[in-house]
């Protein structure tokens, strides 16, 4: 039952279903769910929402507690601060982190915590490095993810494309998304691995509008230092990366302060 | 305990750890593990290997039974055979499937079944569409994945690149992988979404060799029809796609027949 619920976050599974699957009375399933609920809460795994009545059941909503979130961000900072990650031009090598299943799992759980009670129908990113992040979030929100591309391919069918100004380099770029990707009215969470001026994220916002869909939020793994106004005013970031000529400073982004507001923390305690 | 093991496949978790975490005697943890083992087996979730003795513990090894594998392949075929997926030029639209968390989870579990008892240190793919598949497999094998790219980026640091002949179009292409990605001697599982002549997969094989690493296997989601000899002789595919001028036939690939050999099936029954 634990496995079944964990693999289907945000979806209501009926008592009847469990009772048939495990050939047990609904009353004992109900009792087991109560135990699970307590365990999930005690371990900070997530919330188990139980819906009473004949049409009732249980829904697993993953979240990360503030303590765990802070600890994770600190761990990532420690590992990104290793000297051999510094690349010429003030860049930081972080592709290895974004290829480790345990790191991606935590990123997915964190961002899903942000959309605990908001409706999200799809996660969107642009190729290439945002994909693993989008996929992890999509798993924990249990919604599909879509990938916009700079080169539109024949296997995508007809596409919708937008031009946008890359904020940091002021070049005009183009991205395209398959016409079949998003339904009108869908609530779309935009994510990427890194944001500087926010131009790419702005491009994704334009794409969402072209599909008559709505932006549910913007989340990035890391933000870089940027002078001036960002194309995307509202976003969350797990990390802040500040590069100088000879080294890179990594500090926590705005995620923890934005997400663990008193309201939300009390919701998690329910 | 279920959640802890499910999130850390292929890793041995010690009895001592569980006993401290849950403040229970090792004997009761042991009993619980026996129950879990039975449940995992009965539900086809996977194997729970228990290692006896003071240094012992339990290791969760996910797998998919032959029945479930066949059913999944059939479901994917049914959904890919919808008429509106046909694209001009004999292509098939399948990006939506490879963006659904439940489909990706099953693909990951299936391919992980193939490497149940083989050592794999990393999963490799090439951008863009193989990434979600590589990530899912990496989750179930609990090893990192690395992404080769056609355009090497400044954020990858120094890279190793190879040229290869794209089997289907006979063009010469290039792919690069960050030098920091793979350790010498690593056993690498190569995956992609689609294979025609196998040129791209051959390019990845050359890359693996450049890193003094070994190819542990080659797995693709779908293979297309191809006349002549493939660059990659040994591979598994979940699907076979045969396009004609006005429609596309999707049939099962060689996965089920290659993987569910009598030896392996008896291993799963243990």
From TrEMBL, chains A, B:
Q: Which UniProt keywords apply?
A: DNA-binding, Transcription, Transcription regulation
Q: Domain named Bacterial purine repressor N-terminal: which ranges?
A: 1-62
Query: Per the database record, which ranges form the Phosphoribosyltransferase domain?
Result: 97-238
Q: Does the keyword Transcription apply?
A: yes
Q: Which GO terms describe its biological process?
A: negative regulation of DNA-templated transcription; negative regulation of purine nucleobase metabolic process
Q: Extract one GO molecular function annotation from the record.
A: DNA binding
Would you identify the family this protein belongs to, as annotated? Answer: Belongs to the purine/pyrimidine phosphoribosyltransferase family. PurR subfamily.
> Subunit details for this protein?
Homodimer.
What is the name of the protein in this document? Answer: Pur operon repressor
Q: From which source organism is this entry? A: Secundilactobacillus odoratitofui DSM 19909 = JCM 15043
